[in-house]
Amino acid sequence: MMYVSRKARFSASHRLHSKELSDEENRAVFGPCNNPNGHGHNYQVEVVVKGEPDPTTGMIVNLRELKQVLEERVVSEARYRSLDRDVPFMKGRISTTENVALSIWETIAPQLSRGELHLVRVRESTNNVVEYTGPGDT
Ligand code: NI
């Protein structure tokens, strides 16, 4: 088994706020991340695809294709936008880094013509990173 990864970056704004909670509870849970006018991050995304290289091409997945899928489905949708208001793949989800990783997984996985999505890693800041290895993984 081999693994290939591709990185992408975008800057976006967001605000952590749950409709299930009162304003006071939201402030208590999310702290300054609940500030009404939001704030921004320089997100770094890494996707890892696993598989065996195709005997003809020597590739697990065509990195050109992976780059294009990331660019079209993730970066160009999210870049310079509000994750909460403007980004279709985040619709209906609180914009935690966990949900960004989950949404990117669901966006990318069906688009791969070869290989299997293994990991989505989203770095929201230097110190905050979330990794998602897919539904049902143990
Ligand atoms: Ni934030």
What does it look like?
Helix content is about 25%, strand content about 30%. The chain is of the alpha+beta class and about 140 residues long. A four-stranded antiparallel sheet has the order 1-2-3-4, covered by helices on one side. The longest helix is centred in the middle third of the chain and has 16 residues, at about 65-80. Nickel (II) ion binds near residues 14, 33 and 39. The site of nickel (II) ion has 4 residues, from strand 2.
Q: What helical percentage do the residues reach? A: 25-40%
Count of helical regions = 3
Report the structural category.
Answer: alpha+beta
The overall pLDDT, averaged over residues, is 96
Order of helices and strands: EHEHHEE
The 3D shape can be described as elongated
Summarize the structure.
The chain has 3 helices and 4 strands, in the order E-H-E-H-H-E-E. It is α+β, with helices and mostly antiparallel strands and 138 residues long.
What is the strand and helix layout of this fold?
Layout: E1 2-14, H1 23-30, E2 39-51, H2 63-78, H3 97-108, E3 116-123, E4 129-132
Antiparallel strand pairs: 1-2, 2-3, 3-4
The chain binds nickel (II) ion (NI).
Nickel (II) ion binds at residues 14, 33, 39, 41.
Tags for this model:
138 residues; alpha+beta; 4-stranded antiparallel sheet; 4 strands; 28% strand
